[in-house]
Amino acid sequence: MTIFEKKTHLACSSAKLYSWHEKPEAFERLSPPWARMKILKPLPALRSGEFTSFTVSAGILSVAWVAGIEEVEPGRRFVDVQLRGPFATWRHEHLFVEETEKTCVMHDRITYALPMGFVGRLFANKAKRDIERLFEFRHHLLMSLFGEP
Fold first, then answer.
1. The domain containing residue 63 runs over which residues?
2. Residues 6+ apart with CB under 8 A from 106
3. S-S: 11 plus which of 16, 24, 59, 147, CB 3.0-4.6 Å?
4. What is the SS3 assignment for 134?
């Protein structure tokens, strides 16, 4: 299993940031243009047991992905997991940590494993770079929306 983490300080309360993530359009906005994501089933609500399905295209390949919400602590955190998709396992914890009334930390923690054993491990560096690029985009977007403290 590999763990990736990214933290960004933002000029908003954790409640405001969590509320933004609850909006139906949030997931699509967090998807970079190069991923060419198409939502097949929107996430109806940020509640345990709900799920979304989508495709992500890279070059000529299109990969189907189903993600489910596993844990929710309103205003503080939620966890989504891959139910079907390109990884052997994928668990993404979104943490919203209050610093002051007007600042918080967005903390993403992804635990994942690549498929196909040894063959999958040959692509470990590319997967790591792709995940870093994705979360750099996401955190930059959040900084543009909420500002830096």
1. 2-146
2. 7, 8, 10, 17, 94, 95, 96, 139, 142
3. 147
4. helix
